[in-house]
Automatic annotation (TrEMBL):
Its main location: nucleus. One of its GO terms (cellular component) is histone deacetylase complex. It is found in: Nucleus. One of its GO terms (molecular function) is histone deacetylase activity, hydrolytic mechanism. Its cofactor is Zn(2+). Gene3D superfamilies: Histone deacetylase domain (3.40.800.20). This is histone deacetylase. GO terms for biological process: epigenetic regulation of gene expression; regulation of developmental process. Pfam families: Hist_deacetyl (PF00850). It comes from the Eukaryota. It comes from Rhododendron griersonianum.
Length: 552
């Protein structure tokens, strides 16, 4: 029998002896034939090729003939790049429906009404920034790609906002001298070198092509000029519709899709035209490690970031609550590090009410910059958070009330609020998640050393939420001068907290542990055991037998 076996059948048996790997299975390289000789069998037809397409909205890969994205539901031929977010996500590209036209009309405001630029929002945009793109075609579209700006500009144009209710500023490229105030000369030269190369990478995910250096100079120049326009009174506020982004770019390195730090350039430009104190609020889902590094020792720029951190496991791993600044500028860096994904409006607004706005008010900025990304928004496949447009609008509206409305948003959400429109219903009594509450309380405990206005806020939160957040612990007070108050800890009512002097510090310590322990132990035995024949057993169970042995 063996001698009559055909050679190709022998080779199949030899291949079967090789250990099967996942890659073999994926590539259909492993032979799954039966032991019987089936060399005369021929398939009726070749296996159908798997259809693979990428969503124009979220960029995620989809397999099969379905016309809608499995992740975000966008139609694979939707008109988002033509009509922006006014295009239906469920239909193939076409003209706007009647309902969408009505929405568009609500936003429209003729350009002729712009008579005094100082009363309107300025927008910074230049189409040359769209030339910054990844040359090497990979298996998945890059998250930071020209389509981001195309979709946003289409949305604004369709709504009649820009061009329309906002006015543009002329684009210019930032100078080397201006960049050198933020970045090292080596960093500036390394970015410029990419203009001589067809394709290059600073990190595996931070690309550049021959147009990237100019795009980065244009982005930084627009941000600097918008800051100057706002502070000079030529614009009410501003929106920098720019790319590449910047908050990961540090003094000496480009990373995280970022080449030059646009927010840092804008902050220094604002100070150059008279701003004494600049606040940067960063609500991107990733920590702005570059911005924090640049202003680490500055007391004139306050940096506040809300981001996913998860104990340093979430990119870029920086931004823990204990990172507060250095070199005499402790407290001028405030990090709100979320411990998980899925963080939504309630946690962000809760942090704004109890951390961001109290510190910002005490700092009293002359100018505010919002540095953020869409990756904290609901439905983003990378950020995996749950902030809605309403949430972004409420945060922007709250910041707009500070610094006389002198506000610059660099690419991020809440744009409609810049036009002076109400964000809708504002939440007053926001209920946070347990993890969000713990994060906010941790930040307050650290930052109140530098911002005394946070002390009563933390005390109040402990009264309202202490049992929910820390069920076995409670607020205890200790005086700086007299030490523990006779070692007695008790629950405090609301009026006591409000009347309490600032010399009292909050501590998270067990509340009357010994007393509570005995109460639990007594609850576990019948009352009559205390005085009857089983009193000895009662004292044994209650843990004070060593005190009462002589009396038994």
């Amino acid at each position: 029998m063996v001698g009559n076996m055909k050679p190709d059948v022998k080779s199949k048996k030899a291949r079967r002896q090789k250990k099967m790997t996942l890659e073999d299975m994926y590539n259909n390289q492993y032979d799954f034939d039966d032991e019987d000789d089936d060399s005369d069998w021929e398939p009726v037809q070749k296996p159908a090729a798997v259809v693979k397409w990428f969503c124009v909205n979220c960029t995620m890969v989809n397999l099969g003939d379905d016309s809608h994205c499995d992740i975000c539901g966008e139609h694979k031929e939707s008109g988002i790049l033509k009509h922006g977010y006014f295009a239906s996500p469920f239909l193939k590209e076409a003209g706007l429906s009647q309902n969408e036209l009505e929405v568009k009309e609500r936003y429209k405001d003729p350009c002729s009404q712009i008579s005094e630029s100082g009363k309107f929002t300025a927008v910074g945009f230049d189409e040359r920034m769209l030339l910054h793109s990844e040359v090497e075609m990979k298996s998945h579209p890059h998250p930071e790609r020209p389509d981001r700006l195309r979709a946003i500009t289409a949305s604004l144009a369709t709504a009649g906002i820009f061009p329309g209710r906002c006015f543009p500023i002329s684009a210019r490229e930032i100078t080397e001298e201006e960049l050198h105030m933020v970045h090292s000369l080596e960093h500036i030269q390394s970015v410029e070198l990419t203009s001589q190369l067809l394709a290059s990478y600073f990190t595996p995910d931070t690309y550049a092509n021959e147009h990237s250096a100019r795009a980065a100079r244009l982005a930084a120049g627009l941000c600097a000029d918008l800051a100057s326009e706002i502070l000079s009174g030529h614009a009410k506020n501003g929106f920098a519709l720019v790319r590449p982004p910047g908050h990961h770019a540090g003094i000496r390195q480009a990373m995280g899709f970022c080449l030059h730090n646009n927010a840092a350039v804008a902050a220094l430009a604002a100070q150059g035209v008279g701003a004494k104190r600049v606040l940067i609020v960063d609500w991107d889902v990733h920590h702005g490690n570059g911005t924090q590094e640049i202003f680490d020792g500055s007391k004139t720029v306050l940096y506040i970031s809300l981001h996913r951190h998860e104990g340093g496991k979430f990119y870029p791993g920086t931004g823990a609550a204990h990172e507060v600044g250095s070199m005499g500028a402790e407290g001028y860096c405030v990090n709100v590090p979320w411990s998980r994904g899925g963080v939504g409006d309630n946690d962000y607004l809760f942090a704004f009410q109890h951390v961001v706005l109290p510190i910002a008010s005490a700092f009293s900025p002359d100018f505010i910059i919002i540095s953020a990304g869409f990756d904290a928004a609901r439905g983003d496949p990378l950020g995996c958070c749950d902030v809605t447009p309403s949430g972004f609008a409420q945060m922007t509206h709250a910041l707009n009330a500070l610094s006389g409305g002198k506000l610059l948003v660099i690419l991020e959400g809440g744009f409609v609020v810049l036009l002076g429109e109400s964000p809708g219903c504002e939440a007053e009594n926001v209920v946070p998640s347990k993890s969000g509450l713990l994060t906010v309380m941790e930040v307050l405990k650290i930052q109140m050393k530098f911002w005394p206005t946070l002390e009563p806020i933390l005390l109040k939160l402990n009264l309202q939420w202490g049992t929910y957040a820390l069920p076995n612990r409670i607020v205890c007070l200790r005086s700086q001068r007299t030490g523990p108050m006779h070692g007695t800890y008790s629950r405090l009512d609301h009026d006591t907290v409000l009347a309490m002097p600032s010399s009292l510090h909050l501590l998270n310590v067990p509340y009357c542990q010994e007393k509570q322990k005995k109460k639990r132990q007594r609850a576990g035995v019948p009352v009559w055991w205390q005085w009857g024949r089983k009193r000895w057993l009662y004292h044994l169970l209650s843990g004070d037998l060593h005190v009462r042995l002589k009396g038994v």
